[in-house]
Design a protein that fits this description.
Among the domains are: 82-169, Beta Barrel (OB fold (Dihydrolipoamide Acetyltransferase, E2P)); 175-288, OB fold (Dihydrolipoamide Acetyltransferase, E2P), CATH 2.40.50. The protein has 4 helices and 14 strands. It has helices spanning 2-74, 82-87, 131-136, 253-259, and strands spanning 93-107, 110-116, 121-128, 141-152, 155-169, 175-176, 193-202, 204-205, 211-212, 215-216, 228-234, 237-243, 266-272, 282-288. The strands form 3 sheets. Strands 6, 7, 10, 11, 12, 13 and 14 form a 7-stranded mixed β-sheet that branches. Strands 3-2-1-4-5 form a 5-stranded antiparallel β-sheet. It has a two-stranded antiparallel sheet with strand order 8-9. A hairpin with a 2-residue loop joins strand 4 (141-152) and strand 5.
Length: 290
């Protein structure tokens, strides 16, 4: 009996151990599997943020490099932008590419030219030029100019210049600067092709005090064929404008139009924003104000 009891207890003990072993193995396998999944997920979460921002930075860097490259390609080597020309000191050598807008004169192989690009304008004074080349300088013609930046009575210009014709064409539209009259910003448009609207003709006085709607020369001492000077006002301020006879002689429409002006007339004008001791536009068209 004791033997049987002892045998029975041994059997029960073995069964219990086997059950414990099976239970342990079954719990361990899922636990190990969960840890592996969590480890993979954690690995993916760590690596994803590292690669995405890096790719975006590389793309931004590539775009910036391409933009810088394009800007450099737009300006030929050795040629100044208008901003660089403005910043250049007086008497320094300058090299610009610009477009002829009008020719003022030619004399003894020297030409005076109004020129402009999309950013600003240049007055080319007594530029070396043969008569043959002068005929080629039609409005819109692109030229590369090498000379020296100078100033005379407030007018900034390029002197002692040479030029060559290059490929390109541009004719500027008149920029309305009426509202800039009397303001410091006006000079930023020096030498550009501009317009003035709704201005009133004022009396001009000659050296003897006689009044007229215009004068031959600034003091009235000239005659037909000389420069025409006339006064116009806006908002209570009066300005002196000029028909430069070399640019527009006495056979032109604008010369005839100014000679017909009366004090009090309201007029619109176009011309080049020349400077002489202050604003002194060289006018090329005058019409009744619209």
């Amino acid at each position: 009996m004791k033997k049987f009891t002892s045998y029975l207890l041994t059997l029960l003990l073995v069964s219990a151990c086997v059950g414990c072993g099976n239970s342990g193995n079954g719990a361990a396998e899922p636990a190990a599997s969960s840890e592996a999944v969590e480890s993979v997920a954690a690995s993916e979460e760590v690596s994803a943020p590292e690669t995405v921002p890096e790719t975006q930075e590389q793309a931004a860097s590539t775009v910036a490099a391409q933009e810088t490259e394009s800007a450099a390609d737009a300006q030929p080597a050795g040629v100044m932008s208008y901003a660089e020309y403005v910043a250049a000191p007086l008497d320094s050598e300058v090299v610009v590419e610009t477009y002829v807008q009008a020719k003022q004169s030619w004399w003894e192989d020297k030409a005076t030219v109004y020129s402009q690009d999309e950013d600003g304008a240049y007055f080319l004074y007594n530029m070396a030029c043969s008569k043959e080349d002068y005929e080629k300088l039609t409005p819109g013609t692109k030229i590369k100019v090498t000379g020296y930046k100078a100033e005379w009575s407030g007018e900034v210009e390029i002197i002692d210049a040479t030029f060559e014709i290059v490929e390109g064409n541009y004719v500027a539209s008149a920029l309305d600067v009426t509202d800039l009259l009397g303001k410091d910003e006006l000079i930023d448009h020096q030498n550009q092709f501009v317009s003035f609207k709704g201005m009133t003709v004022e009396a001009s006085k000659d050296a003897d005090g006689n009044e007229a709607a215009f004068l031959y020369n600034w003091d009235g001492s000239g005659q037909d064929g000389d420069d025409l000077y006339f006064n116009v006002s806006l908002n209570g301020e009066t300005y002196t404008f000029t028909v430069e006879s070399y640019l527009c002689d006495n056979t032109t429409d604008v010369y005839a139009a100014v000679k017909k002006l009366n004090v009090g007339d309201k007029i619109d004008m176009e011309g080049f924003l020349y400077w002489y001791e202050g604003v002194n536009p060289h006018i090329i068209t005058v019409t009744a104000a619209k």
